[in-house]
Structures are given as structure tokens and as C-alpha cells.
Amino acid sequence: MAVIQVEVEIDAPIDKVWAVVSDIDNEPKFWKGTKEVKNISKEGNTINREVTIAFRDQKCLQQVKIYPKEKIKVKFIKGIINGEKIVSLTAKDEKTILLTYWNIKLTGMMGMFTGAIKNHIKSGTEQAMQSIKEEIER
User: Fold this and answer.
1) Segments making up each domain of the chain, as ranges
2) What pLDDT, on the 0 to 100 scale, is given for residue 80?
3) Is the CB of residue 40 less than 8 Å from the CB of residue 59?
4) Which CATH class is domain 2-137?
5) How many other CB atoms are found less than 10 A from the CB of residue 7?
6) pLDDT at residue number 47
7) Alpha-carbon separation of residue 128 from 34, 79, 99 (angstroms)
8) Cα separations (Å) of 79 from 12, 29, 51, 96, 119?
9) According to the model, what pLDDT value does residue 112 have?
10) CA 53 → CA 14, 16, 87, distances in Å?
11) What is the structure's pLDDT at 110?
12) Residue (of 21, 7, 46) closest to 135 by Cα position
């Protein structure tokens, strides 16, 4: 499993950060590894969706659970990626700590490349978090 953790401090209250982060249909705007999002179903705070990722235009099924103003938990349930991504928010004075945590591996024969893609995913996560920070602090 590849475990990745990236944190950024955003000079904005949690409500403002949540407004951007919780717009999960807009994910490709910030997360360059996500090319397309197609929602399949929604029940309460749980969304099932198909995501096309940049790696060979692979499609992954995800189950997304939204915990308002706290976290978004993405579970990869089918496709080349297995595991989870959690984006969480913590208020710190008038600022917000945005943390993205990955615990994933590639499935099947691609599993042997999990370590190799770890740095790629970490770099993409750092870029996404910086883009989110810049959008909010404008």
C-alpha cells in the first residue's frame, strides 16, 4: 500500500474552504489526475460515481461519503486503484488546515508499480492542494 499525506494551511475560515472542497463534481479543476466525474447514484451523504483518471484513461468506481465541514472519504471500489482518499478540514484560529490522506495500491498485475506511482500521486496532491489554496485565498 502507498500511504501519502499532504497538508496545507489556508488563510480562510472552514466554511469558505468547505464550499470549494465539497464541490466534488468540480474535482477535475484542481485534481489533474481526475479527468472526468460521472455520478451514478446519491443517497443521503453517499455518492456512487465513475471517475476517469489520467493514468491511461482508466475508469474507477468510487463511493464518496461526505461529512459536512469535516471530511470527504473516497473509497475506490472497482478499477485499477484499490483503497481510499480522505480530504479533511480542521479549523485553526481563523485559518483552515486541509489534509489529504491516501492509502491505496494498484490492482492486479499493476500492483508491482504501486511504489513507483507514489511520488507521482504525492506530487499531484501537492499541486491540487496548492491550487485549492490559491483559489480560496484570492
Assistant:
1) 2-137
2) 93
3) no
4) alpha beta
5) 13
6) 98
7) 11, 22, 11
8) 36, 22, 10, 33, 20
9) 87
10) 28, 27, 18
11) 85
12) 21
> How many residues appear in the chain?
138
Per-residue pLDDT at 52: 95
The residues facing 101 across adjacent strands are 5, 86
As a whole number of angstroms, the distance between CA 104 and CA 132 comes to 22
Quote the longest CA-to-CA distance of the chain.
47
Confidence (pLDDT) at 114: 84
Give per-10-residue mean pLDDT for the chain (138 aa): 96 97 95 95 97 90 98 97 97 96 92 87 96 97
Residue 59 cell numbers, joined: 475508469
- Among the listed residues 22, 51, 53, the one whose alpha carbon sits nearest the alpha carbon of residue 39: 51
Residues 115, 30, 76, 100, CA torsion sign = positive
Q: What is the 3-state secondary structure (H, E, C) of 79-91?
A: CCEEEEEEEEEEE
**What pTM, to 2 d.p., does this model score?**
0.94
